[in-house]
Amino acid sequence: MNIFRFAGDMTHLISVLVLLLKIYATKSCSGISLKTQELYALVFLSRYLDLFTNYISLYNTLMKLVFIGSSLAIVWCMRMHHAVKRSYDKEVDTFRHYYLVLACFVLATLVNEQFTLREVCWAFSIYLEAVAILPQLVLLQRSGNVDNLTGQYVFFLGAYRAFYILNWIYRYFTEQYFTRWIACIAGIVQTALYADFFYYYFISWKNNAKLQLPA
Amino acid sequence: TEPSAVKDEL
User: Fold this and answer.
1) Which of A39, A91, A93, A161 could connect to A191 by a Cys-Cys bridge, CB 3.0–4.6 Å?
2) Percent of all residues in chain A with a pLDDT value above 90, rounded to a whole number
3) Interchain proximity B10–A113, CB inside 8 Å
4) Where, per UniProt, does this protein localize (chain A) (predicted)?
5) Contact status of A127 with chain B (Cβ, < 8 Å)
6) Do B4 and A119 touch (CB under 8 A)?
């Protein structure tokens, strides 16, 4: 594992911790899209089907468990926890995420490495992860103001994707590794979705001002 | 068909 991959995994982990911290400390999930969180839970459940059949390393197994567990816990909190669910911005979180699921499923049955249940599920999870942030970005755009922890959550998620691209470039030159073209294309699309957010994040950081997205 | 490669990334 190279430094970029590790940095990517760590920023991903930090993003999850920031989100859990926000929900736990403020007992509020305002500014967080439940639809995006549901999509991530689906992403991890369909990607890590190989959890018990395909052992790679203790690190991989633990990280998979953390991502499945934390995404389910966040969805549970936002739906069931009496205080947290009251702060959920239901009226603003109206993205039709079922269409994303349907489109990614159709794409996965058409474009995959092998037409087997596991490979179709893997491709599905890759496509769905690429677009899963959309309901969250739309929610932030609509509400305009972004609180500190929510901004940091999205920033770390975007950083995770950027590090993964550096990881692939590194692996391409050091290992002649370029078999994961489905993941690479989807990963580039996914990272590009953050470009706009990053732009405003850095402006607010440079001016030491609160993060605001233009309507 | 080629066997699908090991997926060592998360």
Assistant:
1) A161
2) 87
3) no
4) Endoplasmic reticulum membrane
5) no
6) yes
